[in-house]
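Pipeline run #58 for the internal structure catalog. This entry was flagged by the ingest filter as a single-chain record with no existing model, so it goes straight to prediction. Upstream metadata was stripped on purpose; only the residue string is passed forward. Reviewer on rotation: M.T. Logging verbosity set to normal.
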Amino acid sequence: MQRRLIIKGLGASAVALPGLAACGTGGGGDVELSDEPVTIRMTWWGADTRAELTDQAIAAFQKEHPNITVKGEFKDWAGYWDALATTTAANDSPDVIQMDELYLASYGDRGTLLDLADTSDFLDTSGFDAATLATGQIDGTQYAIPIGAGMLASIVNADLFAQYGVELPDDTTWTWDDYAAIANELTEKSGGAINGSGLTGGTDAGSIRYWARLHGNELYGENGDVTLDPAVLASLWEYNLGLAESGGIESAAQSVESQSAGIEGGSLATGKIAMGFGYNTQITPLLAASGADLRLLQLPGSAEADANFIKPSMYWAVSSQSEHPAEAATLVDFLVNHEAAADILGTERGIPANPAMREHVAADLDEGGQLAVDYIESATAGPAVAVTPAGGSGFDPMIQRYTQEVMFGERTPQEAADAFIDELKTEIDAAA
């Protein structure tokens, strides 16, 4: 039976991929390194800086493996997914693929990625924490190796706390009630010059996952079903509506303006709010843009439940269509396990997910990088979350649309929650 894979990229057209069932390694048989000259392809998305560093890492790899030639290719985010879908459909996928969590299930479930257990002689995963490694698994099969690791954090502007005489919270004990009280206090003591906080969730999948876990819920089940309770989602919006009414957070219009301005132009970077949420790795651009004393704190409620989680910045995967899986796996091993690669790549793709490589690059980190590393090593992470199922890649813009409708008073939280979950389920069912 022929199966079709629908890949939807942000800003990219949908591409149908026929004939992806039961894809195996192109070479067949045992996975072995060749003594003969071999050429493999490696693809990634990103800008010129990433390409320059990756080319340097490829050169270092080829110096150690002179019979393996690596041809690198890269594109911007939207063009990348169109190209990958097209080449995969043509049975011409690059051997080594930079993969994102949003699309891991779309490719892994259809057999277009190699089970990396088949390459264990060439790719060592023993140095990774089990919870981190699990983020690249689907139904227990290791389809991808995380490159960088991030965690959600509260990002606070200590300068504004000091300016308005508000004490920094104890992030090992604070609750969501504490957060609301502090946000309101900051707004009041500033005389409205700032708001205490921005939105506390509802603009991305990470914030929804965290809130759901605090309430004994999950966004997705292990089988890819949507398990988010509409009442739990509605309670997040109700919390934000209460803070908007008291002035503890920005107005709906200010929130939209801040989000549109991006990380470096948003309200946290420009000192319009004293608290916000983000991933620990975002601290570097925020520090540069704000010039302020920014701190990373654990999220409210962390003491009540292990709701936080490791989020891979991206992964390396090996195509099941590769005719040279051993050489492809050897390249991935070099990129994630070898100091020579870490010296070149540093934290460009995020704080290294491999603890040994993270420790190796720590001495050369800037202030933001060091804060990000310190946070991920001290914050408590719960079990890995389920990988986003096929059809779920449009989650963030979808939740942002519903959050805006709620905050502008166009829907009640419960109405929006019911409608959002119905729409998400429809998208996932359509991609099955």
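catalog note: The radius of gyration is 22 Å.
catalog note: Residues 184 and 223 are 41 Å apart (CA to CA).
status: ready for reviewer M.T.
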